[in-house]
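Issue 218. Parser rejects a valid record. Input:
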Amino acid sequence: MQSNGLIINLKDTSFSYSGNKLILDHLSFQLHSSDRIGLVGPNGSGKTTLFHIIMGLLRPSSGRVELFGKPAHEEKDFREARKKIGLLFQDADDQLFSPTVLEDVAFGPLNLGKSPDEARDIALKTLARLDLFGFENRITYKLSGGEKRLVSLATVLAMDPEILLLDEPTNGLDDETEEKITEILKGLNLSCIFISHNLDFLFKTTDKIYAMVNGKISLDEELVPHPHIHVHKFGRLPHEHKS
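Output the parser choked on:
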């Protein structure tokens, strides 16, 4: 970890798909150790693209990406950083690819060099943390949408990351399950960025909320986490509250 706590640093970063309109437009962004950041913005504003740039799944057309104090240019740079960053995809079907839940959750620890027995133990303990007892032998593709979200989160947490990047983690969850996930995430001592349209979730789990508009990120002064249930000032970005 860097002495100044800077762990993700994007400088003047731009990206477009097939040379079209810039999705990221000379964007600069920093994540420091212990930061808990919520990220909001309209669909198509580049929130998911930002995560994919950080993970090296997409490469910027210009600008600089630094992870854990080191420039990240080549696949080998990102491969090392991915061992410390847990990414939850917006679509659970992009995350789950093994026949059974246990195989999916154990896959990450195995890739990190754990033995099969160690990976199995980690997977079972992670499933237990998420109240997924008895899920280990369930067939992944037969799970409900909400169950897939929970198992996807388990695959991320099983890798014991230093940073969490979660893309719409409460999508497809009922109120009870969402509350469980919220309490788990609140209890994690990790740096994190959570993309969500669910402001009540962000107020409970993050310390500051940034808005992504026109390819750039800025602190939204109207979105200061507080103990109330509803936000009464929120003009320019779409959002939702639990009733």
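Fixed in the parser; the record now loads. Helices lie at 47-55, 75-82, 101-111, 116-129, 145-157, 175-186, 199-205.
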